[in-house]
Amino acid sequence: MALNLSAIVARHGGDPSRLVQILRDVMDAEGHVAPPVITALASTLGVSRGQVEGVVGFYSFLDSEPRGKYRVLFSDNITDELSGGHELRQRMLDAFRLELGEVSRDGLVSIGATSCTGLCDQGPAMLVNGRAIARLTPARIGAIASLIRGESPMDQWPDNLFVIDSHIERKDLLLSTPLSPGEAIDAAIARGAAATIDEIARSGLRGRGGAGFGTGQKWAACAAAHGGGPAERYVVCNADEGEPGTFKDRELFAHYTDLVLEGMTVAGFAVGAQKGLIYLRAEYPFLFAPLLAKLEERRRAGLLGRDVRGARGFDFDIELHIGAGAYVCGEESALIESLEGKRGIPRNRPPFPVTHGYKQQPTVVNNVETLAVAALIAKHGADFLRAVGTAKSSGTKVLSVSGDVARPGIYEYPFGVPVARVLEDAGARDTQAVQVGGPSGILLGANELGRRISFEDVPSAGAFMVFDTTRDMLAVVENFTRFFAHESCGFCTPCRVGTTLSAQMMKRLVAGKGSRRDMKDLAKVTQIMKASSHCGLGHTAGNPVIDALAKFRPSFDRKLRSLDVLPTFDLDEALAPAREATARDDAEAHFNEEES
Amino acid sequence: MTRAAVEIPTKKKLRVATTSLAGCFGCHMSLLDIDERLVPLLELVELDASPLTDIKHPGPCDLGLIEGGLCNADNVRMLRVFREQCKVLVAMGACAINGGLPAQRNHLDIRDCLQTVYLSGHGVERGFIPNDPELPLPLKQVHPLHDVVKIDYFLPGCPPSAEAIWQFLTDIIAGRTPHLGHGLIKYD
Lengths: 596, 188
Hints:
The complex is a heterodimer.
Chain A: H1 5-11, H2 19-30, H3 35-45, H4 49-58, E1 70-75, H5 78-82, H6 85-95, E2 109-114, E3 126-128, E4 131-133, H7 138-149, E5 168-170, H8 173-176, H9 183-191, H10 193-203, H11 215-224, E6 233-239, H12 248-255, H13 257-271, E7 273-280, H14 285-300, E8 317-322, H15 332-339, E9 363-367, H16 368-380, H17 382-386, E10 396-403, E11 409-414, E12 417-418, H18 419-426, E13 431-436, E14 442-445, E15 452-453, E16 463-468, H19 473-487, H20 493-510, H21 516-532, H22 536-541, H23 543-551, H24 553-559, H25 571-574, H26 576-582
Parallel strand pairs in A: 1-2, 5-11, 6-7, 6-9, 7-8, 10-16
Antiparallel strand pairs in A: 1-3, 3-4, 10-11, 12-15, 13-14, 13-16
Chain B: E1 14-20, H1 26-32, H2 38-44, E2 45-47, E3 61-67, E4 70-72, H3 73-85, E5 86-92, H4 94-98, H5 110-120, E6 138-143, E7 153-155, H6 162-173
Parallel strand pairs in B: 1-2, 1-3, 3-5, 5-7
Antiparallel strand pairs in B: 4-6
């Protein structure tokens, strides 16, 4: 396959800020970004080679070395693991006689693991050359292995492999209020920009991405930035949805596309932006084409472009950016860096994106769900939202329910809903724990199921993973620590080192090789991460460990091999390579059981 | 523990053992750098096993100072003897705390290292990898002390300065919790 680099670069206007998108195209064409390509790209785009190489090295889905012609990545979320993902992965590895992460000698296939792909309601799941396949079974694995062996081109694979189901199980305000395209924009235009922001503020709408910052306040700050004078303002829709166990944005984009795009347009009108950017995670390739088609449709209908809905001077269009597999890019300043074609390392704040965001211009970054709700407020007014929810959390929350429940899927509830109610509706039995808001959120024990989803009590970015009493909570937490160790961007030491240490200690504890010291060190390391990391990833990476130590202490104690200090590695095994090299097998060449 | 059990003999000298595992003896040199203060120090401590006494195996001690990390089986065994014998065990210097310079080999396969040094290296003729049972086998990787036993105190530095060692020892002898403070804690 010949790589037409100049055509790819030209398609992106030779713009270095589109570097991540350019590299994605190179990956699609060649399967990897070879060092000569990195050199060529750097000189074409007028940036340093190190910058391009740094970006390639940063993102999981960009490779500088060839992977298999078929690149298989198994989703490694805990819900995939609990539904048999690891066994299926092993089955496929055995079929090709490969180790995890290895490329077959003929270059045909590589099999690896990736963080949650957002198909937790229909896992276990995988990505093959970026395309998502859900509901894996031994039979499906067998079929996929044969297709790969036969080197069947992916566009000739049976369509049913790529079907993504939709399980919208409960609709409330957001999911059941119809809105015709243009209605919310018209209402906003009629009300005026400043009054629209006031209306959003009065509704009490808070960010649905987890942090809960006041949306009206954010918009107002962006509109007022640089003295409110002329500036290039931007509206960014954060559809990175990397938090394991979250898949609500997937469904919102699949079935409420107009509502989300309408919300972005309303935000653009309110803050005085001309451009909107959607940052969509790469794990949702099935959304790309429909979304691009929808954008085109809205352009044709005068809902995007020049003088939107006939409002003179209101020019607004939306561009789609695809991520490349980095959880940290869900953090808004890292997301902006990524949009600018750089490594997704969170910025120092302040200044905040509302004054210095994309290309250092005033930028509003909102979650998909927040923007959808904003569209409804623009049309129906603040009281429409205030009528439901609680005092400090108006409106509803869309939850992605997965794990040990009879009916996993999307559930929308007014804020204030007790966790137990969600469990009942989803058909959960013998619940031992619920991870609300994903690994960085809160782990609730069985005695806390009366707590309520709201900013006052248990805030949530949307994940709701349920574990019944048959599950080993240590293994659950171990999966989370592994996730954070993989996703730490490496910029600051407390997080880079702390996440890896936590993962190592949890691994020992789960394997029954841990000691009381590991538990003490775990508590200490997680505290250090919380206190001294650069961004939210490090601040929250210790949460599942801290919660589990507090709430599932007996699970830890049962697994301890010793109350004393044990070696952190297998002593006898550490001598094995030297034994092999020297062909020794005498007593001194071993640590006996007592010593180990 | 009852008060009687921790009765501290007032006149008895503190028994101290020291050793260098995968280290360069630099920390021991730094210990000697306390110079003339060695004289009053020896009024207060009795040296057990140490390169300074050439006693190889420690008896029961109050304090053990260990320089160097763990690069082979003997290092691990000696560390465990120290842990058994010493009430208070101190990781002294960068190698004991982090593996230090010897840990530079951790990204290499130890088999390749042995191959290169004893078989295929430049100028090696009729080489063989030494396999006498008397020789300790190297570990796959170099480890810090606390990967194997509980360490009570960490004395950082490469080496820790004589002042830092003096401060540490005088605190321990006086029965205080050692405190180095600003200026004495150095990591290089």
